[in-house]
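Translate sequence into structure tokens.
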Amino acid sequence: MTSRGGPYQPQPQRRIIRTQTAENVGESMFDSEVVPSSLVDISPILRVANEVKSSNPRVAYLCRFYAYKKAHRLDPTSSGTGVRQFKTALLQRLLRENDPTLSERGEKSDAREIQSFYRHYNTKYIQALQNAVDNADR
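Result follows.
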């Protein structure tokens, strides 16, 4: 076919790329901690990740990474409703956050980073609660 004497050239169409869509959907899922019903067991892990993100982004990343691994164990074929989209969005977020949080890591390994965070958390919050209970008993 020709158009005005030249070969037919279709107009380029703007396509939506899947990762862009998954990224946008994923952000709202993590903010509200809404997970597919077949992955409800990972909701507390994501809640912790959201709570510690401001104080320790690397530990938040590691929580999300663990949630992703657990989601894959719970539904390895991603056959549940919304699971494939959720796992894709979570994976996209993990890929985006890995390098920045890795450079902010205070310890030499992720295991030590978690131990250090736990020690700090235990000292600051758990011991303070225990002291408050002890003082209330007196």
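Note: Helices lie at 18-32, 43-52, 57-74, 83-103, 110-137.
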